[in-house]
Amino acid sequence: TPGVRPLVAGNWKMNGLKASASEFRSMLDGYGEDLADLTGLMVCPPATLVLAFAQMSQDSRLSVGAQDCHAEPSGAHTGDLSAEMLADSGAVAVIVGHSERRQNHNEGDEEVHAKASAAWRAGLTAIVCVGETEYERQEGETLDRVGNQLAGSIPDGATADNLVVAYEPVWAIGTGNTPTATDVAEVHRFIRTRLRERFGAEEGGRIRILYGGSVKPSNAEELLGVDNVDGALVGGASLKAEDLLGIAMTY
Ligand code: PEP
Predict the structure, then answer these.
(1) Where does the chain bind substrate (predicted)?
(2) Is 53 contained in some domain?
(3) Which residue among 106, 169, 205, 230 has the highest number of C-beta atoms inside a 10 angstrom radius?
(4) Are 210 and 233 in contact (CB under 8 A)?
């Protein structure tokens, strides 16, 4: 999208120990100044590594995000983390509504909406994930599903600074299968239209829409070259700095 700085964000899921963070950082440093003006690069490590990543990333080439947050700022929620805590640890963004959270933790749009609001309350960018299952695609329900998730999961007041949308077809996550460029284009165009209708032509036109689902260096050019694709949310391939950079460098 013209005038929009792309974002390539890695989602480490439940992977990574302290050593992985420093290894990743050294790999990145190996790329030297090439990175400075690249596309925005972000890693969303497990919450145990957010602080370590933030401390290693004070040169602004790499920003740090988290993978989930609780909707409340504090309280009796054993094991949960608030958006404020993540911000305090150095995160600038948080993924909400990832399909693995929607499936494994039964998160619905209402909860994702509350988590996105919490992210904003803490000054974080919310990376809101949407995407259809394989069954929904077969039934021709992809746009309905994505439209409902957008309407239900994104609070009023979204801007290009506080919101990133990630389109992640559930059947493409971790499977090696990807939609065709034509299918990606159709869904991203649809999301763009909805964002413009709701948040205004200009603001809605600048909100980044990432594609996610089995992105790797070898298919990045095709997928990221599609209209209205403003970057990628990368799972498996983000664990290796060279692969995440390989994807980012397609821009
Ligand atoms: C994800 O889970 O956000 C993702 C895109 O995973 P993968 O790249 O491994 O398909």
Answers:
(1) 11-13, 174, 214, 235-236
(2) yes
(3) 169
(4) yes
Question: pLDDT band at residue 56, thresholds of 50, 70 and 90?
Answer: confident
Q: 60 pLDDT exceeds 70?
A: no
C-alpha span between 60 and 74 (Å, rounded): 29
Is 26 annotated as a binding-site member?
Answer: no
Q: Is residue 231 part of a domain?
A: yes
* 1 occurs within a structural domain: no
Would the pLDDT of 245 be above 60? yes
Q: Rounded mean pLDDT of 26-43? A: 75
Q: Evaluate whether residue 70 is within a structural domain.
A: yes
Q: What is the largest CA-CA distance in the chain?
A: 48
In the annotation, is 168 catalytic? yes
CA of 68 relative to ligand 1 center, distance in Å: 15
Cα of 144 from ligand 1 centre, angstroms: 22
Distance CA 185, CA 189 (A): 6
Amino acid at 25: R
CATH code for the domain of 217:
3.20.20.70
Q: Does the interface predicted TM-score (ipTM) exceed 0.95? A: yes
Cα(54)–Cα(15) distance, rounded to whole angstroms?
A: 17
User: What range does the domain containing 129 cover?
Assistant: 7-248
**pLDDT given at position 210:** 98
Domain count for the chain: 1
Listed in order, strand segments (DSSP E) in the chain are 7-11, 40-44, 62-66, 93-96, 125-130, 163-167, 208-212, 231-234
